[in-house]
Design a protein that fits this description.
Blueprint (H helix, E strand, L loop, with lengths): L2 H32 L8 H46 L1
Helix pairs in contact: 1-2
Length: 89
Amino acid sequence: MSEKRKIELTRLQGIIAIASFSSGVLIAAVCLFWIPPLGEIASSAVSIVSELLVLCGAILGVKASYDVKFRKFEAELSQVMENESKNTQ
């Protein structure tokens, strides 16, 4: 997989993480505190959906953050190795 494709995938994961986390918090806040249910909806069903969305956002957010930091570390390491090879020649 090319480096450009990896960066695009990481950016997409970050966007999905933010959207998932935000929608989970929004669903929990709106459905549990402001809008009374029109029919028979258990509050546990709403809370499960919102908790799963928040979990998804957290997992993807941590992975995207790890990918960015790993890519930065990899670039720094290759730069150090390049400088070492120049100094030995």
